[in-house]
Amino acid sequence: MARGKSLFALAAASAAITLSFMQIPAAAQSEPVRAEVVPGAPETPYVDPDKAYLFAHMTKERYGVLYYSVSRDGLHWEQINGGRPVSEDYHGHASIARGGDGRYYLVGNKSDEDPYIRFWVSDDLVGWKPYGTYRPDLSNIPGLPHAMQRIGAPKLFFDKPSGQFLLTWHTATVPGVPEDPERYWASQRTLYVLSPDLKRFAKPPRRLFDWDMATIDTFIRPEADGSAYCAIVKDERYPSYNWTTGKTVRISCAKDLLGPYPPPGPPVSPNFREAPTVIRAPNGEDWLMYYEQYAGTSYGLSKAPRLTGPWFQVSGNSGVPEWNRYEVPAGLRHGSMVEISKEQYDRLVRAFPNRK
Fold this sequence. Notes:
The protein is 10% helix and 33% strand. The chain is mainly beta. Strand 8 (152-159) and strand 9 form a beta hairpin. The radius of gyration is 23 Å and the shape is globular.
């Protein structure tokens, strides 16, 4: 009899839990799992007839020089211009943002020791011309005493709601020494300035994050639904049992462009990855984040429905074609991927043909 009552009570509790779950608003429930191809089976990537992608990058052989690769599906990339540079004038870690005027802006610098951040502009992504320079004053950064005169990997983001460019880069405070080379990288912090036109910079540089963690390669992307701004960063601490997240790509999201940003979430990439770049897949439902296994070994890819996740690593560049969901040419290094139109894709392929 006791056993029967126990079973009855268990069934009643189960029904109550089920009813309770059904009463939870749809927005509060987990997103449904989308139908996917059978694991390991062949997959035909979706191609939007009006979309394509440009990857502006450097190569292992020529660090800091501008090259182009293109893709129709965001997964399979082809280097154009016969593997030759598309500009001999530009130097830097290519980062492109489209301004409110419809033109494209490219940022770089000659080296980390270069006191100037340099800008180029283009109407069509084919030809770039110098646009201007900015010399940040690093002598009095709040919360970052003894900042070195070093500017690492400047990156651009144009914020449509405010009509402002956000320019970010990393700066160290401690030089490296042979017995402790990582102390230099452990002292890197992300700085930023805002500008309406990359000509006027009303305020001096400031730290973007108030948490005390080494970060480099930081850039900002808004969540697809506009609910948040997400900072994609490389956790620049050296991995150890104390810092298992070291040398990985991580993400922190905030309501406003300048935060405050909470400490970043778990790694999106394995250790020893950097120079992340992210695009929205042609289906408009997924984020594709690429990151380099440095130095120039290969590119990895992680995928998620939202920048907040969940993320998983995609198989590619494996040397076994049937395992691959993506392909990036060997030897490509730091840069940025941007969505372009099919018309722009055709123009780039014509301007930079792969002649045999």
